[in-house]
Amino acid sequence: MTTTAATATRSDFAVLARRVTEQGLMDRRPVYYVARLSVVALMLVGSWTAFVVIGSSWWQLVTAVVLAITFTQLALVGHDLAHRQVFRTKRPSEFAGRLAGNLLIGMSYGWWVEKHTRHHNNPNHDDLDPDVSPEVLIWATESAFGRRGLKGFITRHQAALFFPLLTLLAVDLKVSSVKALRNGTVKRRGLETTLLVLHAAGYLAALLIVLSPLQALAFLLVHQALFGVYLGMTFAPNHKGMPHPDGTEDFLRKQVLTSRNVRGGRFVDAVFGGLNHQIEHHLFPGMPSPNLRKAKPIVETYCAEIGIPYTQTGLVASYRQALRFLHEVGAPARAEHAAR
Q: How far is CA 74 from CA 11, 83, 99, 196, 276, in A?
């Protein structure tokens, strides 16, 4: 990219940022977050209170479903805390983030923030975005070659296995958190480890004291599986199936071209924690989530002005596109397997 072109593209984002700022959309929303945090806190307290009141009963599986929804909403609040949408400064954001992530959910806040920051810096980049690195699922065609055994089977059928595999997401987050803490790559390692141990001890003690062993096992499986599915479904529509950049794009194009918005009203906003406005969130990660909907027409209009494709679709269509992409990426693995 030439100096002139680089200057032009930098000014593209500067124009958009000025338009958004002039509308006050980067301003804090304390009343909104007081209300949202209060609702999530009531959900959490209410769920655990119901758990104790109901006692040893198979009706607790309903509680497990409600608690899975509550954990996901708490995780979405943790996401806003990490982007400093709730508090203006770093210290209260990290304190509340560790409280929500480590103590209440059982996931390392510090590990996730570092990982999520790398994703925001280079979304969908095959080498730099940890969210598309080849692990259980693959997101780049070249990663499909040479996979055998269980990994090969999953790659060949990854579109069909996507939602079933989400049931393991909560476990994967916990395992990854422990690995990061063991490797010493997380700041405030001692504090985060202590909070994770307190969460695990309190969670397991509650299940074993209140429920029978079989009920406790069923509760744990339902709760953690549905938590993983719901959490995964909030992130799956955002980038999966969108272009993979090569790193030469300017900030505006890199963020817009790799992201997809999901249409919907206030209910969809609440279910996704505002992440259905993924384009606006990636352009302005510090913008309070209730302002993303207001920024949408500004961003969409500006993208049309300068000729940048702005992708948005319905919820079902977004999952369909992501699954179609997964199926296409696995094609070389299916061909290789057929040839063998």
A: 37, 15, 10, 16, 17
Name the residue among 131, 141, 205 with its Cα closest to residue 169: 131
Nearest to 195 by CA among 105, 116, 114: 105
Q: Is the pLDDT of residue 128 over 90?
A: no
Asked if 333 and 147 count as a contact pair (C-beta separation under 8 A), the reply is yes
Report CA-CA distances (Å) from 220 to 204, 296, 305.
9, 39, 51
Residue whose C-alpha is closest to residue 284's, from 21, 10, 1, 103? 21
What does pTM read for this prediction? 0.91
Measured between alpha carbons, how far is 143 from 155 in angstroms, rounded to an integer? 9
- Average pLDDT in the chain: 91
Supply the pLDDT for residue 150: 84
pLDDT digits (tens, 9 = 90+) for 2-11: 333 344 456 8
